[in-house]
Write a structure and sequence with these properties.
The structure holds 2 protein chains of 2 kinds.
Chain A: H1 2-16, H2 19-47, H3 55-80, H4 83-88, H5 91-95, H6 101-107, H7 115-130, H8 138-169, H9 176-179, H10 181-187, H11 196-205, H12 213-219, H13 236-239, H14 241-253
Helix pairs in contact in A: 2-7, 3-7, 3-8, 8-14
Chain B: H1 2-15, H2 19-44, E1 49-50, E2 53-54, H3 55-67, H4 69-72, H5 79-87, H6 90-95, H7 100-129, H8 142-173, H9 176-190, H10 202-210, H11 218-224, H12 230-260
Antiparallel strand pairs in B: 1-2
Helix pairs in contact in B: 1-7, 2-3, 2-7, 3-7, 7-8, 8-9, 8-11, 8-12
The chains are: A mainly alpha, B mainly alpha.
Chain lengths: 260, 267
C-alpha cells in the first residue's frame, strides 16, 4: 500500500509539470461525457420516461457509473496501456524486481486528468439525488458508496483481464473497448431496458447488474429488490477482481518475452 | 486534378491494408449500434413514431451512422500531419509542386473512404438480417437511394473540409488535443451523433439547421429512409454545395495566412 501511494504521488507530480495541459485535459474530460448527459436530458424532454424510469433516477445512476469509471481509469490506467510493455519487452524488467507484477503495472501509469470526469459524475449524481423523493437512511447512503466501489472494482477487473490477453496477442485488443467503454455507456442506464441475453450476460458473467439496477431499485424502494440485504449486493462487484487477478497470474506464468 | 485522383487511389489502397483492425472496429460498432438502438427504443416505449420519426427510421438512422462512422466523425485524425507541423518537417511538404490544402484534403478523404469500404458492408449486411425489431430497412425508393448516395458523398466532403480547420489550428497551437476535442464534441453533437436530430427539441433544431454539421450525416441518413422526401433532398444538396464551397474557400485562405506566418520548428 505504501508503495502504491508512492507511485501515485510520483505520477501526480510528473503530470503537474505541464499545468496548463493538465487543466485543459481535465476540462476536456469534464465536457466530453457532459454532452452525452445533455443528450440524455433532451431525450427526457421529449419522452418524459424511459420504461418507467424518471430523469432523476437515470441521472443518479449515470453519476455513479461515471464516478466509478473515472476512478478506475485513473488508477488502473497502467493495465489499459499494458500491451506496450509486452511489445517492447519492457515487461522483463518488471519480472526481476522484488514486487508483485500486478502492483508494478498498476503503478506504471496514473491518469489524474480523469478528475474532470469524476467531477462531472458527482455533479450529475447530485442533480439526480435532488430530484428524487427518497428517505435517505444510513444504509442507503452506504449502498451508494458500495455501488461506486463495486463498479470501480468491476471496471478495474475488466482492464486487468484485457491487459492479460496481450501476453498472447502482443497487440492490445480493440475489442476490449466493448466491455470497458461499452460497459460504461451501457450501465449508465438500468440494464433492464436491454434485451434479455444482454441483461443476463452483464449480470452473471460480467457482474455489472449488481452495481446497476439491483441497488438502484433498492434505493428507490422498488420491488422485488427493496429488502435491506440488497444494499450490500454491490460489494459482490469487488469479488470480480479475484478471478481477474488469478487470470493475470496465469498470464504472467505463460509470458514469453518478445526479446526486443 | 489527375494528380489528386492518383493520390486518392494510392491512399485508399494504403488504407485498405488494415483489415484485422477493421474487424475489431466492426465488432465494436455493431455492439455500439445495438446498445444505442435498445436505449432509443426503450425511450420510444409503445409509440411507433415521435415527431414524424418512426422506429424503423430510427433504427436505420443508427445503423447507417455506425456503418459510415468514418464519414461522419471528427475525431478520426491523421497524426502524421500533426507531427509534420510539430516537428518542422512540413518544410518538405511545402517543397512539393502541389497545393498543400488539396494534398492534405485528398489524403484525409482517402483514409476515410478506405476505412468505410472495409467496415460498411459487413455492418449493413448483418444489420439487414437480425430480428425485425432491430433490423435495418431497405431504402424508401430508388430515387431516395440515389439521393442518399449523393448527399452522403457531399457530406463526406463537407466533413473533411471541417476537419481541415483542426489541422490549420495546429499551426497556431502546436498541439492538436484542444481543438480536436472542441471540434469533435461540439461538431458531433450538432451532427446528431449523440441523439438523432429529429429527436431534438424545436429550438435546438433551429440552431442545428444553420450549422454545417447536420449536412454531414443527418441529411443523407434521413433521405435514405424517406424521412426527408426527395423534393426536399434537392434543396439539401444545394445547401451542401454552398457549405462545401464556403468551407473550402475559407479553409484555403486561412491556411495561406497560417503558412505566411509559419515558423518552421527546427531540430
Amino acid at each position: 500500500m505504501r508503495i502504491f501511494l508512492r507511485y501515485a504521488k510520483m505520477w501526480l507530480k510528473s503530470q503537474m509539470v505541464y499545468k496548463t495541459s493538465f487543466i485543459l485535459l481535465c476540462i476536456g474530460q469534464f465536457f466530453v461525457p457532459f454532452f452525452v448527459f445533455v443528450g440524455l436530458y433532451l431525450l427526457f424532454d421529449r419522452f418524459d420516461t424511459l420504461s418507467g424510469w424518471s430523469f432523476s433516477e437515470i441521472a443518479l445512476l449515470y453519476g455513479v457509473v461515471h464516478m466509478a469509471f473515472s476512478i478506475s481509469e485513473c488508477l488502473v490506467r497502467g493495465f489499459d496501456s499494458f500491451s506496450t510493455l509486452v511489445r517492447t519487452g519492457d515487461f522483463d524488467r518488471l519480472l526481476v524486481r522484488p514486487l508483485p507484477t500486478a502492483l508494478q503495472v498498476l503503478g506504471s501509469k496514473f491518469e489524474f486528468t480523469r478528475i474532470g470526469r469524476l467531477l462531472q459524475g458527482i455533479i450529475i449524481f447530485v442533480i439526480g439525488v435532488s430530484g428524487i423523493d427518497v428517505q435517505w437512511t444510513l444504509l442507503k447512503m452506504s449502498a451508494v458508496a458500495f455501488m461506486v466501489i463495486g463498479a470501480t472494482f468491476i471496471m478495474s477487473g475488466l482492464f486487468i483481464i484485457f491487459a492479460t490477453f496481450s501476453f498472447w496477442t502482443i497487440e492490445g485488443l480493440e475489442i476490449a473497448n466493448i466491455f470497458t467503454d461499452g460497459g460504461r455507456e451501457m450501465t449508465q442506464y438500468p440494464l433492464l431496458i436491454y434485451a434479455k441475453p444482454i441483461q443476463k450476460f452483464f449480470t452473471f458473467i460480467v457482474p455489472f447488474g449488481v452495481v446497476n439496477y439491483i441497488p438502484l431499485m433498492y434505493l428507490l424502494d422498488r420491488g422485488p429488490y427493496d429488502h435491506p440485504v440488497y444494499a450490500f449486493i454491490p460489494l459482490m462487484g469487488v469479488l470480480f477482481i479475484l478471478p481477474s487477478l488469478l487470470f493475470w497470474n496465469f498470464g504472467v506464468k505463460h509470458y514469453k518475452s518478445t526479446g526486443s | 486534378m489527375r494528380v489528386y485522383m492518383a493520390l486518392l487511389k494510392l491512399r485508399v489502397y494504403h488504407g485498405l491494408q488494415y483489415r484485422i483492425a477493421a474487424l475489431a472496429g466492426i465488432a465494436t460498432q455493431f455492439f455500439w449500434g445495438t446498445i444505442m438502438i435498445m436505449v432509443f427504443l426503450a425511450f420510444y416505449g409503445d409509440s411507433v413514431s415521435v415527431g414524424g420519426f418512426s422506429t424503423t427510421q430510427l433504427v436505420t438512422y443508427i445503423w447507417l451512422q455506425q456503418a459510415f462512422l468514418s464519414f461522419i466523425v471528427l475525431w478520426l485524425r491523421d497524426t502524421e500531419l500533426f507531427e509534420l507541423i510539430r516537428t518542422g518537417n512540413i518544410a518538405y511538404e511545402l517543397c512539393r509542386p502541389l497545393n498543400i490544402y488539396g494534398f492534405w484534403y485528398t489524403k484525409l478523404i482517402a483514409t476515410r473512404i478506405a476505412n468505410a469500404m472495409l467496415r460498411c458492408m459487413p455492418i449493413l449486411i448483418v444489420a439487414m438480417f437480425i430480428p425485425e425489431k432491430y433490423r435495418m430497412s431497405l431504402p424508401e425508393s430508388t430515387e431516395s437511394f440515389m439521393l442518399f448516395a449523393v448527399t452522403l458523398l457531399l457530406g463526406l466532403a463537407i466533413n473533411v473540409a471541417i476537419s481541415m480547420f483542426i489541422y490549420i489550428s495546429v499551426f497556431v497551437t502546436l498541439s492538436p488535443m484542444g481543438s480536436l476535442l472542441i471540434f469533435s464534441v461540439v461538431g458531433e453533437f450538432f451532427a446528431g451523433l449523440v441523439i438523432p436530430i429529429p429527436l431534438m427539441p424545436q429550438w435546438l433544431r433551429n440552431i442545428v439547421m444553420v450549422l454545417p454539421f447536420r449536412y454531414v450525416g443527418d441529411l443523407p441518413f434521413r433521405v435514405y429512409s424517406g424521412n426527408i422526401p426527395p423534393s426536399e433532398a434537392f434543396l439539401g444538396i444545394a445547401i451542401q454545395i454552398i457549405w462545401l464551397t464556403a468551407l473550402i474557400l475559407f479553409g484555403k485562405k486561412l491556411m495561406q495566412s497560417a503558412l505566411k506566418h509559419l515558423v518552421v520548428q527546427g531540430g
